[in-house]
Specification:
heterodimer; A: mainly alpha; three-stranded antiparallel β-sheet; 4 strands; globular; B: 320 residues; mainly alpha; two-stranded antiparallel ribbon; 11 helices; 6 strands
């Protein structure tokens, strides 16, 4: 199982890692109880600062996806994010939809794009 | 020649095996090493199509000339040691030859990298495996305990029953050869390359195969030296052992078998790695947005340099 990061992506590296791990959990590729490599291993393999990976892991821990014990590995603790307000959950969706509307996409195109993304999320093991 | 001790004959035997192995490696592995990743690369550096029909011929000729000169220098040094009868210098030659060969290969790769591949393509997208690498998945702790037990037993035999012919530098160097490699193994397990985002799974499999191949090679070398150490300890602590001719040959036979197994592992593994990597982009040919092109796994290169440096220091120290 692999996590891809892209220097041309506008999101910071730690955010790409957070989003990548979340996507793998959502698709079922990373199941509850699965062990993630240590911060040191991921940082060393990617050739990035330890802190970048530590921030990503901490963020995932705060959101309830990872359980991290000091000196032990990080373990996927849940397939669900901690309970958050419906409005908070919808905020990023609203932002993305606004951008699509501003890019002059029709409602039909937007709905097709949303459906496509949902299909991708549910498609286990898709190497896209 | 008859004035040489049994220990020196054992050294000569080990040296003969090293020479055999080096000759085989030269023909099978290093002669065509620049072409390991196919005609699109030279020593891991990406080259234009048709390179080997043009300037590549000169590059290849230059590479092979350096290789021949390097082996000639080693052969001359070995010849001088044998003719002068100072066989005690053979371990220094073997260690020095390995360091010399590694240094020359590194210099060749670095030179090629600085001239032919000065501007490697930068890949913005990189991948990383989410498989946790645990030491226990790669290191057999029971084998490590067995090795430690045999080494301790050898030391106990030499310290309690060792005869006057024990040169303490020999057990120290052999222990270093066996135990000192463990940090190198850990370095190999803990480090890796960033993976290209295309054909990621194949690159990952290749890196994993390379890691396991390096570990197997190191372990077989350690077992070889352990047999030599056990034989040395027996001969220098048990007076009867020197009169038992078959025991002498049994130890040499076991050492030879372990050495041949090591050769088999290295040769078969190298062939399989070359076949797996032929279609893949070598790690040294590209750099990531946050990491430069890597010659080899950083943990492996760092610990190997420390280990080799330590070995040379020990050998030089004991020759004074």
């Amino acid at each position: 199982m692999f996590l891809t990061v892209d220097a041309d992506d506008k999101r910071p590296l730690y955010q790409q890692i957070v989003d990548g791990v979340k996507a793998l959990i959502a698709r079922g590729d990373l199941r509850e109880g699965a062990t993630l490599p240590s911060v040191r291993q991921v940082a060393g393999d990617l050739g990035v600062n330890l802190n970048t990976i530590a921030v990503a892991y901490r963020r995932l821990q705060q959101e309830g996806f990872l359980a991290i014990r000091h000196g032990a590995s990080a373990v996927v603790s849940s397939r669900r994010a901690r309970v958050v307000e419906e409005d908070e959950l919808r905020k990023p969706l609203r932002t993305a939809l606004t951008q699509l509307v501003l890019a002059d996409r029709s409602d039909r195109e937007i709905i097709a794009a949303v459906r496509q993304e949902l299909e991708f999320i549910h498609q286990k093991g898709d190497p896209r | 020649m008859s004035g040489h001790s049994s220990g020196e004959w054992l050294l000569l035997f080990c040296t003969a095996l090293v020479v055999l192995f080096r000759a085989f490696a030269l023909v099978r592995t290093f002669w065509n090493y620049p072409l390991n990743h196919g005609p699109g690369f030279f020593l891991g550096v990406e080259v234009a199509p048709g390179f080997y029909a043009g300037e590549g011929v000169t590059w290849l000729k230059r590479y092979r000339t350096v290789l021949v000169v390097q082996h000639l220098v080693e052969a001359l040094a070995l010849g001088a040691i044998l003719v002068s009868g100072r066989w005690g210098l053979l371990p220094l030659w073997a260690g020095g030859a390995v360091v010399f060969a590694v240094a020359i290969l590194h210099a060749l790769i670095r030179y090629t990298r600085a001239t032919l591949g000065a501007n490697p393509p930068v890949q913005s997208s990189m991948a990383v495996s989410l498989e946790a690498r645990r030491l226990g998945d790669y290191i057999s702790w029971s084998a490590e305990v067995l090795m430690a037990a045999v080494v301790s037993l050898c030391w106990a035999l030499l310290l309690t029953h060792g005869n006057a012919q024990v040169h303490w530098n020999d057990p120290v160097v052999m222990t270093y050869m066996i135990v000192g490699v463990l940090p190198c193994k850990i370095g190999v397990i803990r480090s890796s390359f960033p993976l290209p985002s295309e054909r990621t799974a194949e690159h990952y499999q290749w890196v994993e195969a390379q890691r396991r191949h390096s570990l197997r090679g190191m372990d077989s070398m350690r077992w070889f030296f352990m047999v030599i150490f056990a034989g040395y300890a027996l001969q220098h602590s048990w007076a009867v052992a020197n009169s038992i001719v078959w025991l002498h040959w049994l130890i040499i036979g076991i050492a030879l078998a372990v050495f041949l197994a090591m050769m088999g592992i290295v040769i078969r593994g190298s062939g399989r790695l070359a076949a797996m990597g032929r279609e893949l982009r070598p790690a040294v040919s590209w750099s990531g947005s946050s990491s430069s092109a890597r010659l080899m796994m950083p943990g492996f290169s760092r610990w190997s340099a420390i280990w080799l440096g330590g070995l040379v220091l020990l050998l030089v120290f004991f020759r004074r």
